[in-house]
Predict the structure.
Amino acid sequence: MGERITLELDSESIAAAKEAGIDLSQLLVHALRRRLPKLHAAEREATARQWYEENKEAIDSHNKFVEQHGLFSDGFRKF
């Protein structure tokens, strides 16, 4: 569990968040991670590695298909 802090928010924002089912603690953590890319960097790298390993077979298959058949847009590109 994290450290408790105090924030000031207007009552309209708090009510709207409650109505929408938004967890303000989670929202703040996500916002901080987006604004501060180095925050929890090791955790993010581990998640990215895990995602890659879980999807490596599909990625490799797609890359092989593109190597063999090209991209659907190959005939249309002007660059």
Summary: The radius of gyration is 21 Å. Helices lie at 11-20, 24-35, 41-69.
